[in-house]
Amino acid sequence: MPDELQDNTEPSSLKRELGLLSVFSIVSGTMISSGLFVLPGPAYKLAGPAVILSYAIASVLIIPVMFSKMELGTAMPRSGGSYFFIDRSLGPLAGTVAGLANWLSISLKAAFALVGMGALAASLLITDDPRVFEAVFKAVAVAGCIFFGIINLFSSEGTGRLQVVMVFGLLFAIVIFVVAGILYMQGPEIGPAVIERYVPFAPHGWGAVFAVAGMVFVSYGGLTKVVDVSEEIRNPARNLPLGIFLAFLIVSTLYVVVVSVTVATVDGSILENSLVPISLGAQVSMGKWGAIIISAGALFAFATTANAGILSASRSPLAMSRDGLLPKFFSVIGSRSGTPYVSILITMLFIIFVVVFLSIENLIKTASTMFLVMFMLENLSIMIMRHSGIQNYRPTFRVPFYPWLQIFAIIIYGFLIAEMGEVPIILTTGFAALAGVWYLAYVGRKINRESAFVYLVKNILARDFSRSGLEEELKQITIERDEIQLDRFDRLVKEAVVLDLDGAINAKEFFTELSAALAPRINLAAEQLYHLFLKRERESSTVMRPGLAIPHVIVEGKEIFDLALVRCREGITFSELHQPVTTVFVLIGSQDERNYHLRALMSIAHIVEEEGFDKRWLDARGIENLRDVVLLSGRRRG
Questions:
Q1: CA 529 – CA 521 distance, rounded (Å)
Q2: Measuring CA to CA, which of 74, 296, 339, 488 is 20 to 30 A from 511?
Q3: How far apart are alpha carbons 592 and 559 in whole angstroms?
Q4: CA-CA distance, 389 to 635, in Å (whole number)?
Q5: Before 200, cis peptide (omega within 30)?
Q6: Do the strands 552-555 and 581-590 form a parallel or antiparallel pair, or are they unpaired?
Q7: H or E element in which residue 277 lies
Q8: What is the pLDDT of residues 287-305, one digit of tens each?
Q9: Across the strands, what pairs with 588?
Q10: Secondary structure letter of residue 229 according to DSSP
Q11: Greater confidence, 217 or 88?
C-alpha cells in the first residue's frame, strides 16, 4: 500500500492536482479508442461512405449530455460526479443504481481498451497458435492494468501527467496520418479514384446512416467521464467546462476527418471487412512506416482510455462510500498520495478478472446501454435541480436551450437504447434490479437524505417547510469550489440578526422592530438605539438606490461592530421621495471601528452589484437562505 490507512471517521478531501491540460487529456484519451481505430470498418459495411456523416451525427447527439455534465459538474464538483449528480437530484435509490452502473460501465470500457492494447501487442508475434496469442494478449492487458493502477495509486497528478504525454503522442500520430492522407489524395493518379470511393454516398439508405450513428455514438461516451474526478480539478468552475469543450471540438473534428481520409484511401471492399481500418489507410498513404506510426497511436489510444478509465471508475465507489451506500473502507484515502487507494485496488482487481475470465466483447453493448441510461438520468437531473427551487445550486456554466435540449436528449437516448437489442436491455434491467436489492438490504434503513426531487415535491405541495440538508451541502461545495476564504464580514453575516418581514411597513415601524432585535447584542436600550436610527435618517437618507437602504449608526464604547440583514418583499417606506425598500443592510459600530465600517460598506456594495443578486435575495426561501446569498457572493475578500 502506498500509505498507511488513516482514521476515516471523516473521509479526507482529495487533492486538487488536475489542471486544464489534464482535463483536456483525460477527456480526449477516453474518447479516442476503438471507436476510431476499430469501428470505422464495420460501420462502413453498414452505411458506406456516409459513415462520415454518421460520425458527425453522433458528435451532435453527445452535445446535450456534454452541456448537462458541464452544468452539473460546475455546480457540484465532487468525486463520482455522475453518481453524485443523480443521487442528489433523484435520491439515494437512483444514486445506488447509477453509481454501481457508472462504475461497472467505465470499468468494462477500460478492460476493453486493455484487451485492445494486448491484442495489438500479440499481433506482433510470429505464430498462428491461438492459445499463445490469447495468453500473450491477456498477459499484456493484465500488466497494463497493474501499471496504470500503480500510477493511479500514488498520485492523481502523476496520472494526469502520464495522460497528457500519451494523449499528445496519440494526437501527433493522428495528425501525421491526416496530413499524409490528404497529400496522397492530391496525387494526379489518385484523384479520380478518391471521388469514385465516395459514390454512391449512402448505398444502404439514410436509415442505415442514422442506425450507424447510434452504433458509433458510444465512441463519444468518454467525453463526460472527467466529471467523476471533478473534485480533483483545480478551479473546476473554469477548467472543467473549458477542458471538455476543447476536447469535444478537437476530437470530434478528428473523428470526421480521419474517417473521411480512410474512406478516400482504402478500397471499400477491403475497408468493410477490416478491424484495423486506420492502419490500412496509413499503409496506403505512408507505407510500412505509416502502419507502424498508427499502431503506436492505437497503443496510446488504448492506454489513455485504460488509464483514465481506472481513474474515473474508482471515484464512484469512493463517493458512494462517503454517502453510506457502500461500506466505509471504499472511501479510505491515502494520507500522502491523496488517492482513494482501496477503491482503486478493487477496481483494478475487477478489471483483471474481466480480462482473464470473461468475454467482454459480449458485455460492451450492455456497458453502452448503461451509459445511455446514465445520460438520460443526468439530463433529467438538470431539470429537477433547475425546478426544485434550491437556491444554492449555483453552476458557473448553464445549459443553453433549456429545457428543450434535455427533452430531445432523453427521447433520442431512449431510441438508441431500443436499438441496442434485447440482450443488453435485459442485462441492464437485471443489473438495476440487483442494485435495487442492495439498496433495500444495505442502504434503505441507514440513509435519510433529502434529494432535490423531494424538495421539488415539497415546494409544490407545501408553502412552508424546513431547510434542506442539500442546501447546506451545496453551500459548502460552492465555498470549496470558489476557494472562498471567509473573512471578518462573512463571520459577521453568519452571526447576524436576519429579519424577514411580512407586509409593507414604514420606517418608524421598521426601526422599532430592528432596535428590539439588535439592542441586546450591544448592551444598549432598544429605545435609545431607535432614536439613533431616526436621527441618522433625518440627517440624510440611507436609501442608496431603488430598493436598497444601508442604515448605519455609531454607538458609544470600543470594539463594537454588528450587522443585520433585512428583507421586506412588500417594501419599507423610508420617505415619500423613495420607492419602498426590499433589501436592508444595517451597520452598528463604535468610533474606533470607523475604518472597518468603510470596508464593510465596500463589501456590501460589491454584493448588491453582483449580477442576479436582487432575484436571489427576493427568491430566498428563509433566513438561512438569505444568509447564503451574502456568504456565496463573488466579492473580493481579504
A1: 11
A2: 488
A3: 7
A4: 24
A5: yes
A6: parallel
A7: helix 277-286
A8: 888 888 888 888 888 888 8
A9: 553, 562
A10: G
A11: 88
In sequence order, the 6+-apart residues with CB closer than 8 A to the CB of 33 are 109, 113, 116, 219, 222, 301, 302, 304, 305
Cα distance from N-terminal residue to C-terminal residue, the chain: 41
CA atoms of 80 and 75, how far apart (whole Å):
14
User: Which residues have a Cβ under 8 Å from the Cβ of 362 and sit 6 or more positions away?
Assistant: none
Model-level pTM? 0.82
Which of 246-250's residues contact partners 24+ apart within 8 Å by CB, and which partners? Answer: 246/24, 247/23, 247/24, 247/27, 247/28, 247/31, 247/223, 248/27, 248/59, 248/62, 248/63, 248/66, 248/223, 250/28, 250/171
Question: Which residue in this structure is represented by grid cell 454512391?
Answer: 200
352 in Cβ contact with 157 (< 8 Å): no
What pLDDT sits at residue 188? 62
- Helix (H) or strand (E) run with residue 254 in it: helix 236-265
Torsion angle of C-alpha atoms 629, 632, 637, 638, degrees rounded to 10: 100
Mean pLDDT of 491-508: 93
Closest of 478, 562, 494, 512 to residue 75, by C-alpha:
478
Name 324's Cβ contacts closer than 8 Å, sequence gap at least 6. Answer: 443, 446, 447
| Residues with Cβ within 8 Å of residue 202, at least 6 apart in sequence | 47, 48, 49, 50, 53, 208, 209
Q: How many residues does this entry show for the chain?
A: 638
Q: What is the pLDDT of residues 254-277, one digit of tens each?
A: 999 999 998 888 888 888 887 778
Nearest of 552, 546, 541 to residue 585 by alpha carbon? 552
Segments of 296-390 assigned E as strands: none
Q: By the 8 A CB rule, do 372 and 169 touch?
A: no
Three-state DSSP at 214 gives helix
Beta bridge partners of 498: 565
- What span, in angstroms and rounded, lies between the C-alpha atoms of 170 and 114? 16
Q: How far, in Å, CA of 226 to CA of 231, rounded? A: 10
User: What's 6-49 look like in SS3?
Assistant: CCCCCCCCCCCCECHHHHHHHHHHHHCCHHHHCCHHHHHHHHHH
Q: Is 80 exposed, middle or buried (0-12, 13-18, 19+ CB in 10 A)?
A: buried
- What percent of the chain is modeled with pLDDT above 70? 93
